[in-house]
């Protein structure tokens, strides 16, 4: 990645973007096996400002302006890890930093880190695809732009919560590529006229898990990005994952069976109520008719005299003889 540091434009490329935090670390790990003879940290302004210096023989020195604010995370003489840690960092610490190493026998090596305010740190967003791998495999991540345009720029990045590492950046129109100082061997394609991009991570380990972002810029100026999640698992983790998925599927199956049973019982109960409804109405109607029939007879029928038949008018039976009195 590149930007202008001054006017006229002085291009500067950076390898890592770090989110400003009260306590933050600027990671600098030399990936090769040769000896580090001296390392110096600079803040890059119009001129370079020395922050700290470390020599395996004479140990480290923190410059006065940064005393009690920064320290080397690892001061082991044989270590290639020269990470610089800030505490009580502030907005004044935003900017570009250089981790500049002198090595033997290969000479100098530099990594540039950009510190940005937290609201300017770009989140990866949800992944477009996922891949699961076992340790030791060679993993290849591939992406292809949707638009069929001539590509001008291409890049791969690894996204972490507090930092973004550039893996490779290509300026295809000028035929230039920039391989970052990421402490891991990465293989990628970078050629003029390419239609898709890939990055290969050989012999993956658990530390390679995370989000990877592929970015394109077309000659028309349009930009596209794709985010992929890589998960590197071991046998134990994989077994736990399978057991977790299986137990989750079992619980889901029991839940479906329970819901289905409740639904069937409720449906059958509703059907029985619907079938009893007409019969119940008929029974009520018959009871009412019988009651009406009984109520048509007087409670105390009149007597017309001893030994005579008494007849009662009824709508159904015209003359009904009663017992003699």
UniProtKB/TrEMBL annotation:
Annotated keywords: Membrane, Transmembrane, Transmembrane helix
Keyword Cell wall biogenesis/degradation part of the UniProt annotation: no
Ig-like domain boundaries: 8-99, 126-214
Record-linked InterPro entries: CD226 (IPR042842), Ig-like_dom (IPR007110), Ig-like_dom_sf (IPR036179), Ig-like_fold (IPR013783), Ig_sub (IPR003599), Ig_sub2 (IPR003598), Ig_V-set (IPR013106)
Entry keyword Repressor: no
TM stretches of this protein: 241-267
Identification of the protein by name: CD226 antigen isoform X2
Species of the source: Odocoileus virginianus
């Amino acid at each position: 990645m590149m930007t202008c540091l001054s006017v006229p434009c002085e291009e500067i490329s950076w390898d890592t973007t770090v989110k400003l935090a009260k306590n933050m670390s600027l990671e600098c790990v030399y990936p090769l096996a040769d000896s580090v003879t001296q390392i110096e940290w600079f803040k890059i302004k119009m001129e370079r400002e020395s922050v700290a210096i470390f020599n395996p023989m004479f140990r480290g020195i923190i410059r006065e302006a940064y005393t009690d604010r920064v320290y080397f995370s690892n001061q082991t003489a044989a270590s290639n890890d020269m990470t610089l840690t800030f505490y009580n960092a502030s907005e004044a610490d935003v900017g570009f930093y250089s981790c500049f190493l002198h090595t033997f026998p290969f000479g100098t090596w530099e990594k540039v880190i950009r510190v940005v305010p937290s609201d300017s740190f770009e989140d990866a967003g949800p992944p477009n695809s996922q891949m699961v791998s076992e340790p030791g495999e060679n993993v290849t991540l591939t992406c292809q732009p949707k638009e069929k345009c001539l590509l001008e720029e291409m890049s791969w990045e690894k996204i972490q919560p507090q930092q973004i590492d550039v893996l490779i950046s290509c300026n295809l129109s000028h035929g230039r590529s920039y391989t970052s100082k990421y402490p891991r061997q990465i293989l990628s394609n970078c050629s003029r006229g390419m239609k898709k991009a890939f990055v290969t991570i050989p012999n993956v380990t658990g530390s390679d898990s995370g989000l990877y972002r592929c970015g394109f810029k077309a000659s028309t100026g349009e930009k596209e990005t794709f985010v992929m999640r890589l998960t590197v698992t071991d046998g134990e983790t994989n077994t736990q994952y399978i057991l977790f998925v299986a137990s989750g599927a079992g619980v889901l199956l029991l839940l479906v069976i329970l819901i289905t049973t409740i639904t069937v019982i409720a449906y059958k109960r509703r059907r029985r109520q619907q079938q009893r409804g007409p019969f119940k109405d008929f029974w009520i109607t018959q009871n009412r008719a019988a009651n009406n029939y009984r109520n048509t007879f007087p409670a105390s029928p009149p007597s017309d005299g001893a030994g005579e038949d008494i007849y009662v008018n009824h709508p159904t039976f015209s003359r009904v003889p009663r017992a003699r009195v």
